[in-house]
Amino acid sequence: MRLERWHLGLLTVLLATVVMGTVMVRDSEAQRRGVVRSVFLDARPVLDPFLIELQERTFRFFWDTANANNGLIPDRYPTPSFSSIAAVGFGLTAYPIGVERGYVTREAARQRVLATLHFFHDAPQGPSARGVSGYKGFFYHYLDMKTGERFEDSELSTVDTALLMAGVLFCQSYFSGPEREEAEIRDLAEEIYRRVDWRWAQPNVPAISHGWTPEEGFLEYDWRGYNEAMLVYLLALGSPTFPVGAQAWTEWTSTYDKSWRKVFGQE
């Protein structure tokens, strides 16, 4: 049975709750505005100072290294680097956490997210090898940090697009306020997600391909579990525009018996 959109929304909320350790409450400001805001539980465990510093420094990597004009985040640092769209997805997830932790203001995070979503919404798409950022709603794994166009011979990546979309949808859920900017974030996120043609990425139905290049076509391999590409299938099943069939999930799990094993005594 195909995942309905509300299932995907529920999954996003649950993941966000686990990652952020938050509870939805109404504070005095939110009550005046009639908006539910997310705040951290006062009863959360006291963290080791090392972990506290590690959290903030991890956030700072995404915040400080990003190109503020287009939101692109480098694949590595401090050596000069192209952008990884997966890193952008993680950055989009980190920004709301930074707001909750008090690292940046909500307004600053809003502006960064808007710059990022505007870039991906407006970035050129097409089958050409040059002068584009993506095709069929997917994006190239690596983009030039300044121009945002395909970096060298990078592949159009399904899993890295999925990681980007996870961050996009995380921001859509988090920025739920009545402000014009937050409404714009939600609208942009919706359009970006809706454009991804997951069915096109199934040259060997029902599996989903690793990716595509304009020079060679679809890559040799398809995604099967168990690995990070579970997110590819969840987003593809829940797509409101180009959902894949339920048999795709069966295909994804068909290799579980080969990949599920004990590692260091843990199953």
Folded structure, characterized:
- This protein is mainly alpha-helical and 267 residues long.
- It has one domain (7-203): Glycoside hydrolase 144 (GH144) (Glycosyltransferase), CATH 1.50.10.
- It contains 10 helices and 11 strands.
- It has helices spanning 5-20, 28-33, 49-65, 85-101, 106-122, 158-174, 180-194, 230-237, 247-253, 256-259; strands at residues 22-25, 37-40, 83-84, 134-135, 138-139, 142-143, 156-157, 208-209, 211-213, 217-218, 222-223.
- The strands form 5 sheets. Strands 7-9-10 form a 3-stranded antiparallel sheet. The protein has a two-stranded antiparallel ribbon with strand order 1-2.
- The longest helix is centred in the N-terminal third of the chain and has 17 residues, at 49-65.
- The radius of gyration is 19 Å and the shape is globular.
- Mean pLDDT is 87; it is low at 1-41.
Could you give a short description of this structure?
Helix content is 46%, strand content 10%. It is mainly α and 267 residues long.
Q: Please, what is the average pLDDT?
A: 87
The multimeric state of the shown protein is: single chain
Fraction of residues in H or I helices: 40-55%
Strand order of the largest sheet: 7-9-10
CATH architecture: Alpha/alpha barrel
**Class from helix and strand fractions:** mainly alpha
> What is the CA-atom radius of gyration, in angstroms?
19 Å
Shape: globular
Topology diagram in text:
Blueprint: H1 5-20, E1 22-25, H2 28-33, E2 37-40, H3 49-65, E3 83-84, H4 85-101, H5 106-122, E4 134-135, E5 138-139, E6 142-143, E7 156-157, H6 158-174, H7 180-194, E8 208-209, E9 211-213, E10 217-218, E11 222-223, H8 230-237, H9 247-253, H10 256-259
Antiparallel strand pairs: 1-2, 3-6, 4-5, 7-9, 8-11, 9-10
Helix pairs in contact: 1-6, 3-4, 4-5, 4-6, 5-7, 6-7
